[in-house]
Amino acid sequence: MTLTDSLQQRSQADRPVKRVKAPSGGRNRRVREAASGYAFLLPSLVLLGLFLFLPLVWALFLSFQKTDGFGTNTWVGLANYRRLLSDPVFWRSTVNTALFTVIVVPVSMALGLGAAVLMNTVLPARGLFRTVIVLPMVISGVATALIGVLVFDQNNGIANKFLGAVGLDGVPWQSTGFGAFTSVVLVTLWWRIGFNMIIYLAGLQGISPDLYESAKLEGAGGWQQFRYITWPMVGPSTFFLMIMNVIYSFQVFDLVFVLTKGGPGNSTSVLVTYAYDNGFGDARDQGYAAAIGMFLLVVTSVFTVIQWRASRTRDLVD
Amino acid sequence: MQLNRRQVLRSAGALSVGATLAACGFTKSADTAASGSGGAGTGDLTFTTWGTDSELAGFNTAIAAFEKANPGAKVALNAVPFQQMFSNIDAQLQANQAPDVFRVDYDNLGTYAGRGQLLDLTGKIDATAGDAFTDAMWQAVQYDGKPYGMPHHTDTSAILYNKAAFTAAGITSVPTTVETAWTWEEFEAVAVKLQKSLPAKQYPFAYNWQGQGVTRWLSWLFQADGRFLTEDLTAPAIDSDAGRAAIDFTKSFFTKKYVPQNSSMKSSTYASDLFFSETVAMVFGGAFLLPDAAKLAKFEWGATYSPRNKRGGGDLGGNALVATAGTQRGDVAAKFLQFMTQQQTMKDFCVTASLLPTRKDLITSGLAFAARPELSPIFLGQATTVQPSDAKQVASKNMAKINTVIGDQLEQAFIGGQSTEDTIAGLTAGIKTALAQ
Fold first, then answer.
1. SS (H, E, C) B21-67
2. pLDDT in tens for each of the 318 residues of chain A?
3. Which ipTM score applies to this complex?
4. Taking CA atoms, what residue in A is nearest to B403?
5. A280 touches chain B (CB under 8 A)
6. Which residues have C-beta within 8 Å of that of residue A99, sequence separation ≥ 6?
7. Which residues, other chains included, contact A42 with Cβ-Cβ below 8 Å and sequence gap of 6+?
8. Inter-CA distances, B51 with A238, B80, B290, B372, B373, Å
9. What is the DSSP string of A179-198?
10. Is A50's CB within 8 Å of B24's CB?
11. Quick check: helix, strand or coil at residue A24?
12. Residue B211, CA distances (Å) to B48, B54, B70 in order
């Protein structure tokens, strides 16, 4: 058989099978089946519509309005968006959110992967270690932040007591921007590593031991095995975690709200805490808060699209 | 009856949609129809508040007395956490599901009254009802010359001090009358003495402006005989010598390290906790702190008056009780508000909850708190430094927004190194914007 014959045969095989004419009443059956399908979908669609799409559209409308917190709204067009451009606290919050994302996402993923690699080996008492690392995941964000307050209290916190015990000066965790930002990052890392580790661990356990065996036979060292087998093989996990972590970082709220309230000054203010302060604080400016929310939605969507387009093949491992 | 697969699916779908809508409040359940504020005719009054255990116990006792005195009247108390109180009330007002009566601090009263959310009590309470209260407290519930609430109780900050720390620093006496309270200079001298004698990482004092306490900074402005709004409440008035003096003095608490650096307005550490942990030797706090201090401070402590400068001054703490504009039971609500501020009801509540009365007769006759009764006169005396003109500014329409401006600007001054002039300019511009909204 020539190559052309072979290709022709393949192309015929790929052609869809000619649809057999449906017996009488088939159309009704298809409609009924479709209706059943939609009936199954309905509860989810109703919930999504009510709690996701409706508030989203509502927030968009709200962002074009001046609000007083009691439902007396006036249409102001793009005024809230123009105010964003000239609001230094908004830009400070944007920079803080971006900085938080740039630090937390790679560091928490690297530590999560490191922990997963360790837990995937024959580490003694690894069940205990796994539990310890995953434990913060089951604690709510507010409780985690309250633990953070106890640890990073500048005067009586555990961190400064520990530093004092080893002869070091305490860190001004609450009265300097750098200290406060660092405390938020550290608490976040403690909270997020467990989730990253779990996902990476699942990825690692899906890698065939044959690959490592072959690599060893070829003389690959530990680093080479990690670099050329582990890292590419956990690609889908990395892709998934990247999206999840970036979205989480852009939406960070509870930890900052409880741990630093955005202070000192505005040094730890992030977009969601700033939106909350505007919408539900004394200002009761829900229109402006909605405009901040819309900005956040656009940024997160753009990032997700770029990431998805750049890495659309990353969820497939050969 | 036999059901086929499709019938089961259809029924399940219909049920789930119904349940979802009911859960979301799109359909009114029998319960809410009977007890919600929209359902007139049952006579039940809904009352939303936050409160400590002792405050809630005080409310329950008062409600039982009201129900006994008014056969047929029922009051349903709904206690919510303070953090969610006003976002809940705002949402309920927007949805026409607000309670008939709620508790509100004086800073927020003007916000609700100025936006038509509260019931004007003119004609619903005795015309002379206001005579029972101090001028400042009656002023605090007025908006546009009309009463929109009843001043239920007040509270103002005095100083709690650690006796051992004072002895160690050689401070042997503290002011015993409001007239002889420390001047700012004397207060600073006390702080310097403490600073010299205290070990490292302990500080002379902490001020209670964290959390929702931003308004408490105004005590310093009032002590300097300053104002933040003009007489007619239409323009900022902080750009004054008094404004500069108050900012300079309070800024120096941080630059001279009289207070811990983590005790600024946005700090998550409360001043009282710094006192209980002996990180500071003095703390500014209201009478409501006494029960906690009696339990948590494991050392000997006393109390004295807040400092004075050109005059004495204090913060307008405490809360009013208000009825909502949309209530169907305005007359019962007004009756309830009057009952809650009667002499005996107020006295019982204030004694139990360690709060200050707003009635002249109770201030004259005095009362003794359950915790540390001997300190009651200090807090009662401190409350007399609040003047009607102070109360009028604090209860103005845009106070809540002005609070945000004060908090942001002073945080920059205390922690961010912002100069006094820049702070005055920032406050003036911010207050102007808040007034225009």
1. HHHHCCCCCHHHHHHCCCCCCCCEEEEEECCCHHHHHHHHHHHHHHH
2. 444 444 444 444 444 444 545 555 678 888 999 999 999 999 999 999 999 999 999 999 999 999 887 877 889 999 999 999 999 999 999 999 999 999 999 999 999 999 998 888 877 887 888 888 888 888 888 999 999 999 999 888 899 999 989 988 889 998 899 999 999 999 999 999 999 999 999 999 889 989 999 999 989 888 899 999 999 999 889 988 998 899 889 989 999 999 998 888 899 999 999 999 998 888 788 999 999 999 999 998 888 888 778 765 555 554
3. 0.77
4. A282
5. yes
6. A181
7. B13, B16, B17
8. 48, 8, 15, 20, 21
9. HHHHHHHHHHHHHHHHHHHH
10. yes
11. coil
12. 21, 21, 39
Task: Compare CB distances from A264 to B6, B403, B415 and report the shortest one's residue.
Answer: B415
Largest CA distance in chain B: 92
Report the sign of the C-alpha dihedral through residues A109, A112, A114, A120, in that order.
negative
Residues B355 and B318 sit within 8 Å (Cβ to Cβ): yes
B334: which 2 tokens? Answer: 């007004």
- Fill in the amino acid letter for B135: D
Cross-strand bridge partners of residue B15: none
Chain A CB contacts of B93 below 8 Å:
70-71
Global confidence as pTM: 0.80
Q: What residues in B contact A36, CB-CB < 8 Å?
A: 6, 9
Which residues between 14 and 33 in chain B have a beta carbon less than 8 angstroms from any beta carbon of chain A?
Answer: 16-17, 20, 24
CA distance B382 to B395: 19
Q: Which residue of B lies nearest to A74 if distances are taken between CA atoms?
A: B437
Q: What is the DSSP string of B123-191?
A: TTS-TTGGGGB-HHHHHHTEETTEE-SEEEEEE--EEEEEHHHHHHTT------SSTTPPBHHHHHHHH
DSSP B183-248: BHHHHHHHHHHHHHHSPTT-EEEE---STT-GGGGHHHHHHTT--SB-TTSSSB---SHHHHHHHH
User: Which string of DSSP letters, residue by residue, matches B253-315?
Assistant: HHHTTSS-TT-STT-SS-HHHHHHTTSEEEEEE-GGGHHHHHHH--S-EEEEPPPBSSS----
- B residues 371..430 contacting A (CB < 8 A): 400-401, 403-404, 408, 411-412, 415-416
**Closest residue to B268, CB basis, from A259, A280, A281:** A259
Nearest CA in chain A to B260: A155
Give residues 130 to 189 of B whose Cβ lies within 8 Å of A: none
Dist. CA A269–CA A97, nearest whole Å: 8
Q: In this structure, are residues B279 and B202 in contact, taking their beta carbons and an 8 Å threshold?
A: yes
Searching chain A, which residue's CA lies closest to the CA of residue B410?
A265
Say if A168 is an interface residue toward chain B (CB within 8 Å): no
